[in-house]
Amino acid sequence: MTASLRLGPVLRHPGPTTATVWLETDAPCLVRILVDGTTVASTRTFTVHGHHYALCTVEGLTPGSRPPYEVFLDQDRVWPEPDSPFPPSTLSTVDPEAPTRLLYGSCRTPTGDTPEGVVRYGPDMLRAAARLLAREPVDGNLALLLIGDQVYADEVQEPMLAFLAQAREQDDPDVVPADEVVHYDEYAELYRQAWSDPLVRWLLSTVPTLMIFDDHDVRDDWNSSAAWRHDMDRLPWWHTRITSALGSYWVYQHLGNLAPGERDRDPLWKAVCGAGGDAAEEVDAFAWRAHSEPSSYRWSHRHDLGPVRVLVADTRCSRALDEDDPSDGSRSILGPRGHQWLDEHLTGGPEHVVVVSTVPVMLPPAVHHLEAWNEAVCAGAWGRALRGPAERLRQELDLEHWAAFQYSFRRLSDTVGRVSRGERGPAPSTVLFLSGDVHFSYLARVRGVDGTGRVTQLVSSPLCNQVPPSMRRMIRLSASRPLHLVGRILSWLAGVPAPALRWRLEEPPYFGNTLGEVSFDGREAHAAWYHCPEGGADALPTVRQRAEL
Fold first, then answer.
1. Pairwise CA distance, residues 512 & 464, whole Å
2. Upper half-sphere CA count for residue 206 (Cβ side, 13 Å)
3. For residue range 4-36, what is the model confidence (pLDDT) as tens digits?
4. C-beta separation of 497 from 488 below 8 A
5. pTM of structure
6. Secondary structure percentages of the chain, helix, strand, coil, to 5
7. Backbone angles phi, psi at 314, to 5 degrees
């Protein structure tokens, strides 16, 4: 049987002299990467749940180079595709001395920019970015950060609903939800539909991409609280769902985040390579353990891109969710191992430090205080009788960000303050938080940090999934000073200390689809948000807002 390319290639972890290419095929085969007609990397596919994948590491490249590459399966060239309208895909490496650009965003519903999709979800900013980058040469280091909700397993679109209906003819609809992804095969199809658009496929093939999950990659409000987790663990299909979600995430997203040396040390990678056949059993066991014992695996990852240190933090899977006393660290957004990892890497030294957190660290102040108040009440600050109503409010309003994990927020605030003041090594010029999740975009500047480093929260969300108009007024109000005051009084009455960091939103929240950009050159850093004022299959992004950081 001749193998063909099912998905990819996707350019993943970039290094000064290495590049990593991920792909999926429809049959076992030998995968080869060629540059100038010469094979520079080759590997055989591995198999998980009947699906075949390859991860090729090209070594010995020149820092800052971009050689075009081809992909062969056995003896057949499968990439670039014949008569491709796009420029050649390239193997981009990191130049430690060059300026660096980071593109980032979250929350994407694939619509193909159909008229119906544009009306409901807005223009797809990944497709728009591809159209722009296909026209403009890239200078310096460029990386794309996909920071949550790469796929929506719980809010599937019509093509996925049709797939589920056909694939589950024998399933009991009372046991498995008809409109949600549950099985590994279904996740594989969900990723195929999300990443097979020609524009997106080309973009991912030529721009190094780093990823981290948020809740919809698994399920909305994933690990928002112990009560939520308890309710989900009782569902008969949840074991299959969580093993499929985390197993497929490891294969499709996380594996490519790892540097070659890190990947070689990864216990699951060793197990998959040594399986001698289908590694479904190994992947499923790993996924359930990662869910039931969050400290058993680290999803966070670090990257050094020129003068920029990028720390991508897992704020979902590793959460500690004890509710009795949130001040002692038994309830935290990173868990003990996650905090230890971030403390180790969040230091001075680099020119710029970027912390990628899918959920914003600094929300509109009124929302911050509401979440902090809610956590305290859920823990019993206003008596046992109000704990249940507070939990219901938490789940109804999605109160699940850093502010709802005050131990973590205060610990991070303290660390950032010390980094900014040069107490943890030479102070960086900027400390930036890049986030998504909330379906609106904004910039929040921190005030009152006595140091040389400038601290800023940047949010770009969504890529393609606009917040309903009915919610926009409420969000705008959340950024107002009167509600800020009300929220602060509530949190004070619940015994929550005032935040160590103070911040303000520079402009009102923006609700359109955006792709964020941060550019670094020496000690300078600049932010921009791209949007498409008009939708359509040929829409090009323009800069809506710029800011000096």
1. 9
2. 25
3. 999 999 999 999 999 999 999 999 999 999 999
4. no
5. 0.96
6. 35, 25, 40
7. -80, 110
In the predicted model, what is the mean pLDDT of residues 82-104? 95
Task: For residue 63, say if its preceding peptide bond is cis, omega within 30 degrees of 0.
Answer: no
Task: Check pLDDT > 80 for residue 133.
Answer: yes
- Least reliable range by pLDDT among 161-175, 431-445, 529-543: 161-175
Residue 460 near residue 441 (C-beta atoms within 8 A)? yes
Q: Is 260 exposed, middle or buried (0-12, 13-18, 19+ CB in 10 A)?
A: middle
CATH of the domain spanning 299-510: 3.30.750.180
**How many CB atoms neighbour CB 9 within 10 A?**
25
Domain boundaries, the chain: 299-510
**Contact call for residues 302 and 350 (beta carbons, < 8 A):** no
Give, for 162, the enclosing helix (H) or strand (E).
helix 158-167
493 phi/psi in degrees, rounded to 5: -65, -25
- Is 90 exceeded by the pLDDT of residue 539? no
In angstroms, how far is the first alpha carbon of the chain from the final one? Answer: 55
Which band of pLDDT confidence, cut at 50, 70 and 90, is reported for residue 276? confident
| Token pair in block for residue 43 | 């590997």
Interhelix angle 365-378/469-478, nearest 10 degrees: 90
Residue 546 class from Cβ within 10 Å (0-12 exposed, 13-18 middle, 19+ buried)? exposed
